[in-house]
Amino acid sequence: MKQAPDLQQAQQRMAPGALTMDGFLGTDPRSLIEILQDDDGAVRRLGLTHAEIGAAMGVLTDRAIAAFGGTVEHGDHAVCACEAMGQMPCPFGHPGLYHKTVVEAENSVTGETMMWSVLQVHMVAEHGFYEGKGAHFRLEPEAVARFLGIFPRQGEGA
Fold first, then answer.
1. Which residue of 31, 40, 71, 86 has the fewest CB atoms within a 10 Å radius of its CB?
2. Residue 150 phi/psi, 5° resolution?
3. Rounded CA separation 151/138 (Å)
4. Quick one: DSSP state of residue 76?
5. What is the rounded CA–CA span in Å between residue 103 and residue 84?
6. What tens digit of pLDDT does each residue of 127-158 get?
7. Which residues contact residue 115 at a Cβ distance below 8 angstroms, ignoring those fewer than 6 apart?
8. DSSP three-state, residue 73
9. CA-CA distances (angstroms) from residue 79 to 57, 76, 113?
10. pTM (2 decimals)?
């Protein structure tokens, strides 16, 4: 499928060396529109929205940042934030800058761990973008929903 010019520009900004050394697409051979469509289908099959997943990530992110470098418990998760100097723009061209903060989270029930950036919370919630396969911060929609303990609404999803 042919990409609209705005997505083509976003894909160019996601390339290695444009905004980050490694970029946002990893080794994924798919176009940005294909990545977005595939991940959107996965989230729909779960009976969820990207906004719901992003909001749950955002709650943990806010708790971690408020802990000022310490680890804090929130429900079934222990989270901490590691901040680097600087800010990054959204590769989709969304206005604003996002702090270079990485959240490390552990699900205390399963022992599973995940990490994501503040920018990634925005990209999931606003753009339905979980990064390309092989990218350092790639999140599989099903895995992140399970990790966060998000379940489909009654009568929807798998």
1. 86
2. -90, 130
3. 21
4. T
5. 11
6. 999 999 999 999 999 999 999 999 765 444 44
7. 102, 103, 104, 105, 137
8. strand
9. 11, 10, 10
10. 0.91
Q: What is the Cα–Cα distance from 136 to 104, expressed in whole angstroms?
A: 13
Stated as kind and residue range, the H or E segment containing 91 is none
Nearest to 150 by CA among 44, 62, 47, 38: 47
Q: CA–CA distance from 157 to each of 34, 102, 137 (Å)?
A: 21, 30, 25
Helices (H), 4-155: 5-13, 32-45, 50-66, 118-122, 141-148
Instruction: Give the tokens for residue 16.
Output: 């290695």
Spatial distance between the Cα atoms of 88 and 133, rounded to a whole number of angstroms: 21
Q: What are phi and psi of 56, to 5 degrees?
A: -65, -40
Q: Tokens standing for 148? A: 């966060």
Interval 57-99: pLDDT, tens: 999 999 999 998 899 999 999 999 998 889 999 999 999 999 9
The answer to whether residues 134 and 28 touch, using CB atoms and an 8 Å cutoff, is yes
In angstroms, how far is CA 107 from the centroid of its own chain? 17
User: Max CA-CA distance within the chain?
Assistant: 46
3-state SS, residue 52: helix
Nearest to 31 by CA among 54, 66, 1: 1
